[in-house]
Amino acid sequence: MATLHPEVTWAQRSSPVDADKNIIYLTIKAPDVSKDNLKLDLTSTKLSYKGKTDKGQEYGVEIEFFEEIDPTESRHHHSARATECVLRKKEKKEEFWPRLTKDKAKLHWLKTDFDKWVDEDEQDGPAPEPEFDPSMMSQFGGGDDAGGFGGIDFSKLGGAQDLSGLGGNATGLDDDSDDDMPDLEGDKEKEGDGAAAIPSEPTAAAPEKGKAVIEELD
């Protein structure tokens, strides 16, 4: 069975000062590859991927990067659908990479990830929300099986909101929000002991002023 070339999508962020915002989003779409049948190697200049499904279909791809990345600060997450990577660019700079690969060539299997892509002058907007728990990402080389995101903080990328200023109520509403509720119509009471008002004039049912008649039962 011939080895298939998986589809690869990518997007990026850049920053001259913040390494956490100087990254490549890379997704290798090879479905039904188990973790046990996956080999993923990353160096500062190249990524190599090999995978096999339970039915014996093999996938493979090698990507030589436009510039160097930092493997120790890069992470990946593998699922039954794809392998998603966050690669840390080694050099901090304001400009985007003009392309992902070292060689300038048209590659039919390499596409822009428009769900994650932003223009260079719009990078301060919200970061894409991952479809998985970022804490479940693993370090390349298997040195971080317990997860850990290696310093890449999605909150710094704008993908999370800080709720610390809302106190103990994450909804932003005061716990005593019913204190200012208006009185219901017809339910107002006199000040004092809270008893309902009694008619001041006698009626047929109340011949004596201020007193109600209690009728005996037969």
How would you describe this protein?
With 218 residues, the protein is an all-beta fold. The chain is built from no helices and 9 strands. About 29% of the residues have low confidence.
Gap between N and C termini: 99 Å
Proportion of helical residues = under 10%
Low-confidence segments, given as residue ranges, are 142-182, 184-192, 194-200, 202-207
Q: CATH class of the domain at 7-154, please?
A: Mainly Beta
Query: Going across the major beta sheet, what is the strand order?
Result: 8-1-2-7-6-9
What general form does the structure show? globular
Question: Average pLDDT across residues?
Answer: 73
DSSP strand count: 9
Q: Describe the oligomeric state of these chains in a short phrase.
A: single chain
Give descriptors for this structure.
protein-folding chaperone binding; Hsp90 protein binding; 218 residues; three-stranded antiparallel beta sheet; 28% strand; Immunoglobulin-like; mainly beta; Prostaglandin E synthase 3 (Cytosolic); CS_dom; six-stranded mixed beta sheet; p23-like
